[in-house]
Request: fold
Amino acid sequence: MLERDSAENRQNHLLGSSTVLRRDDERMNTSTTKSAISNRLDVQELEMLLEAYFVQIDGTLNKLSTLREYVDDTEDYVNILLDDKQN
Reply:
């Protein structure tokens, strides 16, 4: 009788352990899923930030290009005036 109780206890202990292991696996899977979703959201947020920076940089580049053309035009105008004074 004692051996039977001991065997049942071991079996219950083993079954209980497998239940605990399954719960840990479920938690790990849930954690992994949450982590994957979080990573996906982080990547999307990063892409949106990079796109916003790109738009700002592109706008700044356009302003600098316009300013450069203005400086070149002013330089040409000054050179024309100087040539006129020399003649």
About this structure: Helices lie at 2-86. The chain is about 100% helix and 0% strand. Residues 2-86 form the longest helix (85 residues).
